[in-house]
Each structure stands twice: as C-alpha cells, then as structure tokens.
Design a protein that fits this description.
- There is one protein chain.
- This protein has six helices and no strands.
- With 148 residues, the chain is mostly helical.
C-alpha cells in the first residue's frame, strides 16, 4: 500500500485524548454501577502480595486509598497515601480540559497540554521516593505511614 503525504498522522496527544475519553467513560459507568448495586468497588480487591508476604509496601501500595481520598476531595490524604495519584489525576484533568478547549476552538486557542518526557520522569521519581520513604519509615522507625 502506497502512503501519500496527504494522510494525516495522529499525534500522541490525540491518542492520549481518545484514551482519556475512554477512561472517563469507564469511570462514569463504574460510578453508576457501584451506585445502583451498592457493592463497594474495593470489595473484590485482594491485599498486596508483597505486603502480605514481607510486611513491606510495594511501589503501588496506598494507591487505592489515595484514589478514594482524591475523589472524596481530601487532597492532603490522597497525597499522603500515594503522591503519584493526585499528580497523575491533576495532569490528566488538565490535559483533558486543555485539549478539549483547543479542539472546540479549532486550534485557535492553543493551550493544549503537550506530551513531555519530564511528566513520565516525575511519575517515576514519585513512585520510587514513595516506595523508599514508606518502607524506610516502617523498617527504621517502625512508623506505618499508610495507616493513618
């Protein structure tokens, strides 16, 4: 198949925007299923295997509680449970809002957030720092930072 230069290449921002719309639709559907059924969305979750076996926290431990706190409006608790969650949520919300404004204005208002590798590196740093801090506090000072 011969590709011509007239074909439009889909940008990474367009791909992320489509995925974001799908995620928001899935979250919206889950919200209504939980409301109608009355079943807690965490009822089917299993405990962390690493924490169960070793007593140490994995890099994702605290994420569910951070999501619940964030959705409840308690940003401090969300950040304390897992700083990646409010960071990712705020980035995603701003990305979706700014891309929507840019698309609705037909690119006349150019405020759409663009993908940068630094956003990914900040996420990695947050995950590693969280993992080290909660486990160091647990091992060295016997303080469980995720059970407050």
């Amino acid at each position: 198949m011969n590709h011509t230069s007239s074909e439009k290449k889909i940008s990474i921002e367009d791909t992320f925007y489509i995925v974001g719309l799908g995620c928001f639709a899935a979250a919206f559907a889950l919200f209504f299923v939980v409301r109608i059924s009355g079943v807690s969305p965490t009822a089917w979750l299993r405990p962390c295997i690493l924490h169960t076996l070793t007593g140490l926290y994995c890099p994702g431990c605290g994420g569910t509680r951070a999501c619940i706190s964030f959705l409840s409006g308690d940003l401090y608790a969300s950040f304390r449970y897992h700083p990646f969650v409010p960071y990712a949520a705020i980035c995603c919300i701003w990305f979706m809002i700014s891309q929507t404004i840019e698309k609705i204005s037909r690119h006349r208002i150019r405020i759409g957030m663009k993908y940068r590798d630094i956003y990914l590196w900040i996420s990695v740093v947050l995950l590693v720092v969280h993992f080290v801090v909660v486990n160091a506090a647990l091992i060295i000072w016997k303080v469980d930072l995720l059970n407050f």
